[in-house]
Design a protein that fits this description.
By secondary structure, this protein is mainly α. The chain has helices at about 5-20, 35, 40-55, 60-90, 95-105, 110-125, and strands spanning about 25, 105-110, 130, 135. About 25% of the residues are buried.
Length: about 140
């Protein structure tokens, strides 16, 4: 396995493992991972990581590159959605001070770092489509 392919493989493994890392901690009571935030969305990210790993192992680098880009887009979208959800959760309260206080009690955790790191590694270190002038997969 090429070093770049190994780093991309490691990125997909980190992305897969990061779906179980704590992402939000509401009111200091419990922690939420990606599956607690949105279970179907978490399953899609996990499936994309599995497809990326399969693409690296089978040397289908176009598939793994596409899975890396989709994973990066999905992670970015879930971060934006979490930011918007946290800042609009208590907007129904007519007292701005109380709404701001309750919003500050929802903390973002360290799980976002491996989630983004895995997605970025899987995109940046994906090998080229061809090795030299020969195609990676020949149809002979």
């Amino acid at each position: 396995m090429q070093p770049k392919a190994f780093l991309s493989f490691a990125g997909f493994v980190i992305l897969m493992a990061a779906t179980w890392c704590p992402l939000l901690r509401p009111f200091g009571i419990l922690t939420w991972d990606l599956y607690a935030l949105n279970k179907p969305y978490g399953m899609v990210v996990l499936l994309i990581a599995v497809v990326g790993i399969a693409g690296i192992v089978l040397k289908q680098y176009k598939v793994s590159r596409m899975a890396g880009f989709i994973g990066l887009v999905l992670v970015t979208l879930v971060y934006i959605a979490a930011q918007m959800k946290v800042h609009t959760t208590f907007s129904f309260i007519p007292f701005k001070g109380m709404a701001g206080f309750l919003t500050k009690l929802i903390k973002f955790q360290w799980g976002w770092y491996p989630l983004f790191a895995g997605a970025v590694l899987s995109v940046l270190f994906n090998p080229k489509y061809t090795e030299g002038n020969k195609p990676v997969v020949s149809l002979k």
